[in-house]
Design a protein that fits this description.
The protein is of the alpha+beta class. The protein has a single domain, classed as Ribosomal Protein L22, Chain A. The chain has six helices and eleven strands. The strands form four sheets. The protein has a four-stranded mixed sheet with strand order 4-5-1-11, with helices on one face. A three-stranded antiparallel sheet has the order 6-10-9, covered by helices on one side. A hairpin with a 2-residue loop joins β4 (about 90-95) and β5 (about 95-105). The two termini are about 35 Å apart.
Length: about 230
């Protein structure tokens, strides 16, 4: 049976701790960070990628600065150094939270979204989601549509991120359950394990593992995690 680990990460860091995060990124990551126009977006990128490096380094027994990543054709990152038997992993961030997923035996995807007003949720669902999902969303009381939309979005996004295809994969080719029902693939694809991640009342988050009956282990990085970057 496959087992996966998912870490919740707090990205609200002091300037000193954010500087530590920036120090362990490689040159391509630093260049990407500099292209963000908004300081908040830049800080979120730096902190989340440093957390990913810390988690991968702990798993591989090396320093975070020694991690070397490349992007696959679909955009999903892959570990190339240290070499040998790397696990599949995934990163998502929104607001002041990030998720990192790691799995040795199967593809994994994670997604987190901050809840916010979205008056056109039904229009987006009808345009991009499966018909059964859009219909289930439309049947909810109005006050439940927004939170359920983001929960549904993270379930679908986690699946396509595990596949490594990004949003180039049509989202209407498969359907998942709608919150508050526990996450599960209803139609379209191999056996999957989906699980909600508790990220706080203002967030929706999901992990998807491309294996049936996978064990999902939940973790939270300690508040001083940037101090462990070295």
């Amino acid at each position: 049976m496959s087992a996966a680990d998912v870490w919740l990460v707090d990205l609200a860091l002091s300037p000193n701790r954010l500087a530590r995060c920036a120090h362990v990124l490689d040159r391509p990551e630093q260049d990407r960070a500099e292209r963000f126009l908004r300081p908040a977006d830049r800080a979120r990128f730096i902190a989340s990628h440093a957390a990913l490096r810390l988690i991968l380094a702990q798993a591989r027994g090396c320093a975070p600065s020694q991690i070397r990543l490349i992007a696959r054709p679909g955009g999903k990152p892959e570990l190339i150094s240290p070499a040998g038997g790397g696990a599949d992993f995934n990163l998502s961030h929104s607001g002041s939270r990030a998720l990192v997923g790691l799995c040795d035996a199967a593809a994994i995807g994670v997604d987190i979204e901050g809840l916010r007003p979205i008056p056109d949720a039904l229009r987006i669902a009808r345009a991009h989601f499966a018909a059964d999902e859009a219909g289930a969303l439309a049947a909810l009381p109005p006050e439940m549509i927004g939170p359920a939309f983001f929960g549904l979005w993270t379930r679908k996004e986690a699946v396509v991120k595990a596949l490594g295809t990004g949003l180039s994969a049509p989202l209407d080719r498969f359907s998942v359950t709608l919150p508050p029902t526990p996450p599960r693939l209803l139609r379209g694809g191999d056996p999957w394990t989906l699980a909600s991640v508790e990220a706080g009342p203002l967030y929706a988050a999901t992990v998807a593992v491309r294996a049936v009956g996978a064990t999902i282990r939940h973790h939270t990085l300690p508040a001083d995690w940037p101090d462990r970057l070295g």
